[in-house]
Write a structure and sequence with these properties.
By secondary structure, this protein is of the alpha/beta class. The protein has seven helices and five strands; from the N terminus they run E-H-E-H-E-H-E-H-E-H-H-H. Strand 3, helix 3 (79-92) and strand 4 form a beta-alpha-beta unit.
């Protein structure tokens, strides 16, 4: 007998090739071992598609736990994700409060300073409160490009601490305990120091610019007065 229904909402346009998916899939795979059933929806499939939006809304309301995994865009949730959250809120207006619904948000970013995700997590918490959801908390994950949509286990030591943090989340959900977010978020920073991460990130930008024939323009400041 299953212990409950989980819905994973992926808020990245890269869908199952995204870091958001890699993180969410790791959680789902481990929760399935604990006899939970699950569904995955891609938020970008619901934009301007009433049928997909309606199906997603029904799955949302029928799930015991919703996990929303998304990338940080500048300092917020991607605009299409905000649109979908607004759609869900509108659909839930007038519904009888469903106390069983719980909501967990996971934001990832390319910054080393994952604190920049906090503003978007505050938005997620507000959404949960507006929809009478049980707010399970928010997880901030820095250095997302290092994952780049790859399987967390196959990345080995690079994601060891991150996986330890996510395992704590799985155990907390399975045993119906509050998630110790402070402990979890201590394990979700990039494995190397800030200087090394910045060095590797800058190298990545330069390699990408070279591939696109723009290396000579990398220091251009066209909007600077």
């Amino acid at each position: 007998m299953d212990k409950g229904k989980i819905l994973l909402m992926i808020g990245s346009p890269r869908k199952d090739r995204s870091t958001s998916y890699s993180i969410g899939k790791y959680l789902l795979d481990n929760l399935m071992k604990c006899d939970y059933t699950n569904k995955t929806v891609y938020v970008y499939d619901c934009i301007n598609n009433e049928k997909n939006s309606e199906e997603m809304s029904e799955l949302f309301n029928d799930s015991d736990l919703i996990i929303f995994s998304y990338p940080l865009y500048v300092d917020s949730i991607p605009a299409p994700c905000i649109k979908v959250l607004e759609y869900i809120t509108e659909k839930r207006q007038g519904m009888k409060c469903q106390a069983k619904n719980a909501f967990l948000a996971i934001g990832n970013c390319g910054f080393y300073e994952k604190e920049q995700i906090q503003n978007s997590l505050n938005v997620c918490k507000f959404f949960a409160e507006e929809n009478s959801l049980n707010w399970y908390g928010g997880i901030s994950i820095g250095g997302g490009p290092q994952i780049n949509g790859k399987n967390l286990k196959k990345l080995g030591g690079m994601t060891k601490k991150l996986r330890e943090g996510l395992d704590i989340v799985v155990d907390s959900i399975d045993y119906k305990r509050p998630i110790p977010m402070e402990e979890v978020n201590k394990l979700t920073s990039p494995p190397e120091g800030k200087n090394i991460y910045s060095l590797m990130a800058n190298l990545g930008f330069k390699l990408q610019a070279k591939r696109n024939g723009l290396l000579k323009n990398i220091n251009d400041t066209p909007y600077k007065e």
